[in-house]
C-alpha cells in the first residue's frame, strides 16, 4: 500500500486519528465532541463503498448535542490497516461475528464501557444490529439505516428453496444479484480499473443509487422469485454479462447535474476516489464473500431466537431500494426482530446515501431517538 494521502478535508470540530491494537487492526477514525471528557459516546459504522468520511455531515450536530461521536474506517477500508484484503485471504475475519468484535475492541481501546447508541448504514447496519443482539450491555440503543434487520437465522437452518442465481440467469433477460457479483474475483479489478476511472465510476454509482436519479421508485416485492427481484434496478439485479462499472456507466450524471449536486460535490467525491484508488475495493468485497459463502449464516445462527431488545430505530431514504431488496425483511424487523422499535422513517429527498443526502433530517431523527432512549 502506498503512503497515506494528504489530510482529509473535514468539517470544523471533526478530527482524524488512529487507534492501534484493535482486534489486530490499526484503526483510523474520525471523531467529534472529543474536547469534553465523559460525554456519552456514539459509534457510527459505514457501509460499501464508503468510509468513516460518509458521516462527516451529521457528526458536528451530534457533537453539538453533547455526544462524543466516533466513526471508524471499518475492517478492509480506507486508512485502517492490518486486514488481509487479498482475494486469496481468509474471509473469516470479515464475518459478522468478527466485525462485532472489531466494534467491541475499539470501544475497549477508547476506554468505553458502553455507548449511547451504535448506528450502522448499509453493510454497517447488520453489524450494528448484531452488536445490539450480542452485547446489549455495551450497545444500549441501535439505529439501522438503509438495510433492515430481520433477526438471526433460525435453527435448524432452512434448506434453500432453489438456486436463485440460476433462476436469475435463466430469465429472458439473464440477470445476476449484485452480491453474487461482488463475491467474484473479477469484481475488484472491474471497479478499480474501470474504463471511466475510479472517480467517474463512483460518481455514477453514488448518483444512480441516490434520489437524484429519477429511475428510483422503490416498492415492496412479492417474494424471492427471480422475476420479482428483476423488477429492481440493474445496480441490484445486474445484467448477467456486465460488471458494475459497465452497469452504472450509462447513468453518469451530466456536468450540470454534478455541479448541482450539493450533497456530494466533486471535492468531496475526490476523497472517496483517492482512497479507493489507493486501497482497491477488495477489503469491502470480502464482507460480501463472508455472506454469500454461508459463513455469516452459520456463525450468527448461534443467536437463533434472539432479537434486538434495546431501543431501536430504522432510517432510510424514500428513494432507496435497499429497504426492499430482501423481501420480507422489513416486515420481520417491524413485527418480530426488534422488541422496542421506536420508528421506521423514510426520508424524502434521499436515496441510499441518506445521511449524506439529507444530513439535517437524519441528525434530527437521531437526536429525537437518543433523547427518547435516554429517558427510559
For the secondary structure, the number of strands is: 10
Low-confidence stretches: none
Please write the CATH class name of the largest domain.
Alpha Beta
Compute the number of helices: 16
The percentage helix is 25-40%
First-last Cα distance: 47 Å
- Here the CATH topology of the largest domain equals Rossmann fold
Class from helix and strand fractions: alpha/beta
Beta-sheet strand percentage? Answer: 5-15%
Can you tell me about this structure?
- It is a single chain.
- This protein is an alpha/beta fold.
- The protein has two domains: 14-157 and 298-374, 3-Layer(aba) Sandwich (Rossmann fold), CATH 3.40.50.1820; 164-285, no CATH class.
- 36% of the residues lie in helices and 15% in strands.
- The protein is built from 16 helices and ten strands.
- The protein has helices at 59-64, 96-109, 124-134, 164-169, 178-182, 186-192, 197-208, 226-229, 244-248, 255-259, 266-279, 282-292, 295-300, 329-337, 354-357, 359-374, and strands at 14-22, 25-32, 41-45, 68-72, 117-121, 142-145, 175-177, 237-239, 312-317, 341-347.
- The strands form two sheets. The protein has an eight-stranded mixed beta sheet with strand order 1-2-4-3-5-6-9-10, with helices on both faces.
- Helix 2 (96-109) packs across helix 3 (124-134) and helix 7 (197-208) packs across helix 11.
- The radius of gyration is 19 Å and the shape is globular.
- It starts with 13 loop residues before the first strand and ends with a helix.
- The model has no long low-confidence stretch (mean pLDDT 96).
Amino acid at each position: 500500500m502506498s503512503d497515506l494521502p494528504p489530510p482529509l478535508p473535514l468539517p470544523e470540530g471533526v478530527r482524524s486519528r488512529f487507534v492501534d491494537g484493535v482486534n489486530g487492526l490499526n484503526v483510523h477514525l474520525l471523531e467529534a465532541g472529543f474536547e469534553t471528557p465523559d460525554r456519552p459516546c456514539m459509534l457510527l459504522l459505514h457501509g460499501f463503498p464508503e468510509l468513516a468520511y460518509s458521516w462527516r455531515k451529521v457528526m458536528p450536530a451530534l457533537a453539538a448535542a453533547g455526544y462524543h461521536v466516533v466513526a471508524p474506517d471499518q475492517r478492509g477500508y480506507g486508512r485502517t490497516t492490518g486486514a488481509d484484503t487479498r482475494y486469496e485471504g481468509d474471509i473469516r475475519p470479515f464475518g459478522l461475528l468478527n466485525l462485532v468484535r472489531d466494534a467491541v475492541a475499539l470501544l475497549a481501546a477508547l476506554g468505553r464501557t458502553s455507548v449511547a447508541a451504535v448506528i450502522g448504514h448499509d453493510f454497517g447496519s447488520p453489524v450494528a444490529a448484531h452488536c445490539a443482539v450480542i452485547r446489549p450491555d455495551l450497545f444500549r440503543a441501535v439505529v439501522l439505516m438503509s438495510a433492515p434487520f430481520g433477526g438471526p437465522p433460525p435453527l435448524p437452518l432452512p434448506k434453500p428453496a432453489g438456486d436463485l442465481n440460476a433462476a436469475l440467469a435463466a430469465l429472458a433477460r439473464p440477470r445476476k444479484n449484485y452480491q453474487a457479483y461482488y463475491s467474484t474475483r473479477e469484481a475488484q479489478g472491474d471497479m478499480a480499473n474501470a474504463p471511466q476511472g475510479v472517480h467517474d465510476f463512483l460518481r455514477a454509482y453514488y448518483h444512480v443509487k441516490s434520489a437524484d436519479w429519477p429511475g428510483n421508485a422503490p416498492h415492496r416485492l412479492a417474494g424471492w422469485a427471480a422475476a420479482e427481484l428483476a423488477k429492481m434496478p440493474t445496480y441490484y439485479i445486474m445484467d448477467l454479462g456486465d460488471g458494475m462499472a459497465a452497469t452504472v456507466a450509462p447513468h453518469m450524471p451530466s456536468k450540470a447535474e454534478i455541479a448541482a449536486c450539493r450533497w456530494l460535490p466533486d471535492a468531496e467525491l475526490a476523497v472517496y476516489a483517492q482512497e479507493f484508488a489507493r486501497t482497491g475495493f477488495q477489503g469491502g468485497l470480502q464482507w460480501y464473500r463472508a455472506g454469500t459463502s454461508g459463513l455469516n449464516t452459520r456463525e450468527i445462527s448461534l443467536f437463533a431466537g434472539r432479537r434486538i431488545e434495546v431501543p431501536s430505530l430504522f432510517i432510510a431514504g424514500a428513494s432507496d431500494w435497499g429497504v426492499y431488496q430482501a423481501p420480507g425483511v422489513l416486515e420481520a424487523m417491524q413485527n418480530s426482530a426488534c422488541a422496542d422499535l421506536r420508528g421506521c422513517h423514510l426520508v424524502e429527498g434521499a436515496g441510499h446515501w441518506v445521511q449524506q443526502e439529507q444530513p439535517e433530517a437524519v441528525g434530527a431523527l437521531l437526536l429525537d431517538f437518543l433523547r427518547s432512549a435516554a429517558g427510559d
